[in-house]
Amino acid sequence: MTVMGCLFAGGAGRRLGGVEKALIEFSGSPLWKRATHRITPMVDQMVVTGPTAPEWSEAVPGLVFVQDFQPNGEPIGPAGGLLAALEHCLREKGPESLLLTIPIDAPFFPVDLFAQLSTGRGNARAALVETEFRLQPTFGLWSCALAPDVRSCVKQGKLALHAIADHVGAVKVRFQAEDEAFLNINTPEDIQRAEAVATLLEQS
After folding, report:
1. Looking at the chain, which runs of residues are DSSP E strands?
2. Which of 23, 28, 126, 142 sits in a 20 to 30 Å window from 162, CA-based?
3. Mind listing the pLDDT tens digit for each residue in 46-77?
């Protein structure tokens, strides 16, 4: 069974002035480097999804770019990345393979993300992270056999990841980690928050 890591990198970074979020640096490293370094021990191979191949992807050995599914040439958010990655994984690795998804702009996700999701998934075909206060739908573990089901959802206009997850019977796996562990950087304030979290982690 192959575990494929999927980095969602299609965000436009509008609230950051149009800057590609993967290139944002804090604590001395760009977000793409922190994310790939963190997920690499959990997976066998990695793909990055988005509308176009990011230049930084060439710096990550073995990383494969998979273009988002874009009906009529229009982006549909993470659903387009999920569908494209699942279909790629199904085609290349077969229905027994798994896809572990993370957003590229999340520098602190738990190093045991796969282990917890895999255990919590049980016999379900997908599992999403849930913390005390919210669902974290971009952090998930999906059976690649779900590719046709996800395509059906997208064709029906179900584009929210939590709606897709509900449709395929995904379970929610409760993580005891603080919400900061799943912090996404979307605004300048988020960058400041991430810097503060990084400082605390370095001091602990």
Report:
1. 3-8, 25-26, 29-30, 45-50, 64-67, 98-103, 126-130, 135-143, 171-174
2. 23
3. 999 999 999 999 999 999 999 999 998 888 99
